[in-house]
Structure formats: C-alpha cells, structure tokens
Specification:
The structure holds 2 protein chains of 2 kinds.
Chain A (H helix, E strand, L loop, with lengths): L13 E5 L4 E6 L4 E6 L6 E7 L2 E5 L2 H8 L9 E3 L5 E8 L13 H7 L10 H11 L14 E3 L22 E7 L3 E7 L15 E6 L1
Antiparallel strand pairs in A: 1-11, 2-10, 3-9, 3-11, 4-5, 4-8, 4-10, 6-7, 7-9
Chain B lengths: L13 E7 L3 E6 L3 E7 L6 E7 L2 E5 L2 H7 L10 E3 L5 E8 L13 H8 L4 H4 L7 H10 L12 E3 L1 E5 L5 E6 L5 E6 L3 E6 L15 E8 L14 H23 L2
InterPro entries (chain B): DUF1989, UAAP1
Organism (chain B): Oleiphilus messinensis
Pfam families (chain B): DUF1989
Chain lengths: 212, 254
Amino acid sequence: MIKESPRACSTAIQRDIVPAGDYYIQIIKQGQTVRLVDLEGNQAADTLFYSANDPGERYSATDTIREQGNLYLTAGSILKTNENNDLLEIVADTCGRHDTVGGACASESNTVRYDLEKRGMHACRDSWMLAIQEHEEFGLGKADITHNINFFMNVPVTPEGKLTFEDGISAPGKYVELKALMDTIMLISNCPQLNNPCNGYNPTPIEVLIWD
Amino acid sequence: MTLDVINPNAAECRYQTTLNSGQHWSLLVRRDIQMTLTDLSGGSNVGMLLYNPTQLSEKYNAPDTLKCQHTFKLTRGHCLYSDMGRIFCSIIEDTFGWHDTVCGNSHSSHIQARWGARNYQQDRNDWHQNGYDSFLVELAKYNLTRRDMAANLNWFSEVGASDDGQLALKRHSKKDDRVTLRFEMDTLVVLHTCPHPLSEAGHYPRTSVQLELMQSQPMAADDPCLNYCQENQRGFENNSLYHFGLQTLYRSMP
C-alpha cells in the first residue's frame, strides 16, 4: 500500500548516509520514527531489529508473516518479535512491497547460489558480523543474526510454490518509514550484492532519518 | 521396536518410535542415517530445527534453503541448508509434496485462543502443548536458548500464497503420508509434534507420527537431490570440503 509520510526532512533530529556495502547500527527509541531512503533506486537494505533492553527478543520474520497472514511488508504491517510482541509498525511506504522471505546474502551461500569461487565477494552477513564485532556494547552474537527484512526488494512467491527475484519496484527517492513500538536496535547491511538484480548489480547508498 | 544394542551400526539395524501430538524430541543424528516420518493418523504437523553439533551456531537457514533452490515449497529433491552454505540433509522421499518453512511456531497464546486453556493437573499429558515452548524445552538440553531458534520447518503442512501474498494453510498430510530425510552431515535434530500455527481444527489435533531411523544408502551419481539443480551440486561440494577438513583434524589428533 502506497502511503506518503507527513514528515519533512528538515525536522529530522538525525540524518546519516550509509555507503554501498556498509553497515549501520543505531538505537531507535520507543515512539521515534525512522525513514530509510533508497537514494539512487534498486538498492536492498537488509535489516534486523532487536529489543534494546533485551536483545534476545528480536525481529522474527516467521512471527510477522504468520500474524499478518501475508508474505509481504508495507504500510500497516506490524513487525513482530520472536516472543510475538509488537516491535515496529510501518507507517509510510512509497515503494509498496518489501521482502522478508529471501534472507541476506552471505559469502557461504554465495558459493552455493553462484559459484564456489565467489566466496571472497563481500556479502550482507559479513557486514553484520563486522558490526557485532565492532559494537560489542549492543551484546549481539552470531546466534542473533537471523531471518531479516529486505527493504526495497521484491521476491514474489507464485501460487505454484516458486520463489523468484524481481527487479523494478523501487526507484530513486522511494522510502519506507517505521515507528518504534519499543526501544529498538536497528542493524542494517546496505547490501553489497553484485550477483543478482536485487540492487541492479550496482550497490548504492541509502539515507537514514530519525524523528522524535 | 528397539535397536540391537550389541551391534547398533549394523546396516539392517533400525529404530522406530511413535510421537503423539504435543510431544518434543531430539537426537544427534550421524551422517549416513536416514529418518522417515510417517503420519499415522492424518492431519499431523512436525516442527523441526537443525544444528551442527560441533558448532551449534550453525543452524538450519530457511531463506538460504528456499532461495538457492528457487522454491517456496519443500519436497523431494530439495536439500535443507545451514547458514554456512552446507547441506544438513536431503529430502529423498516425499508422498505429500509441499512442506512449510515460513510460518514458524504456535505460541501458548495461539493455542489458548483457539482451543482454550488447559492445565496439566486436569488433563495430564493431554494438555495443549505449543511449538515455541516445546522447542525451548528441547533446546535447553543442549544449552541453546530462544536466541538460537531459527525459522523452523513444518512437515506435513502445505501453506500457499496468493499473488498478493495472502497465506493459507491449504492441506495437511493424509494417513500414511511420509517424508524421508538423508543426513549429509552430523546433525542435532530437534522436533515437536504440536499443531501448525495456522491450524483452525475444531479440536486440538490428536495425531500420531512414526519416526524411523535406519542406515542410508550411499549417494549415487544420479541422485535426485544432488542433480535437482547446480546449486545443490555446489552445496554437496561444500559438504565434501567440510568432511575433508574434519578428517584432516581427526587424523592429526594424538
């Protein structure tokens, strides 16, 4: 569902650019709103969320999918935790659909999906691993790196049970906005994927804005 | 039926047990063992998680499993992947055709809302156990917690999606439907027989599942799982590297 935000960029309390292939980790306080902007289009923002007060409670793709009875995320979707509690709500979305089935690229899964010799290529799960190593203060470990959201990515499932990766629903300037329903750690890998059309074979930066 | 404890590795040796609904179970399963699950009553669901017992942070990964085989449903020919690019097990037989791995588990709140609160004092082992708590109990036995839980499999439950992503639990297995998993590396298998979280059955399902273990046959060159797609051939290559590394490690030990 396309829903524009009433918020002006000029009133944001924080604005950050996340370069292509980099990570971003930040606490979003309960009641704050965060916007992810696909600056140049066709980017995928592979994102994980955790309760800031108890990182063992975290975004759960399966609980979210089951509770809303739908595979795709958009305005109105409530993101659920592994304890089946409300974590965030998508309050605005100019893209219309976001994936939470396809997961994140990893150097290990790239060997399976593309070629055994592609293990050396940069991948989202490596970005997350570096983030949790460089930010021990959040108390995250490998076990916490789980099934994520791919903002701006389109992974349609057919009624016959096929899974496909499609280009073409995001564009420069499209955004998604989430309101935190509890104090939340947001961990983004701004996808470095060079092997499939999820970011048009051309990783680009995103912008993160936060409002009180 | 019990194992021959004098010679438990004999090729003809088998083990089988029956799990009624609402139970949980786990075992460290060696490579080259196969597990057959048979729905003895019809309408069953088996939730399952998989871990590498030598490195428990390596676990079943639903997204990698689905996307590398370009599938949303799981059936014969598919392999179940870890987050480290390796294959825990292959689905070598399946009479049902479509197993779910995106709907997760029932929580106690779901079970109470649908079938009412039940307690142990009144209902004994007919109380209404839920999938999430069942996994927690079984995982604790290996020092694993909710942080180690992943998106699980739901055997014997078909969940389809419409073009706009609406989900529906379309079908459960019938009596005698079965699925066989051939283990390709040593694997900690954790499972429960609680209802699928989208189940709208009139009563808490009272079903039973037979679990059977036996020695598997070596994989042949024309194996349907190996040849399902080039991705699986590369997955098996990763397993070969893993076992090569382990053999080297064991040989170097005093």
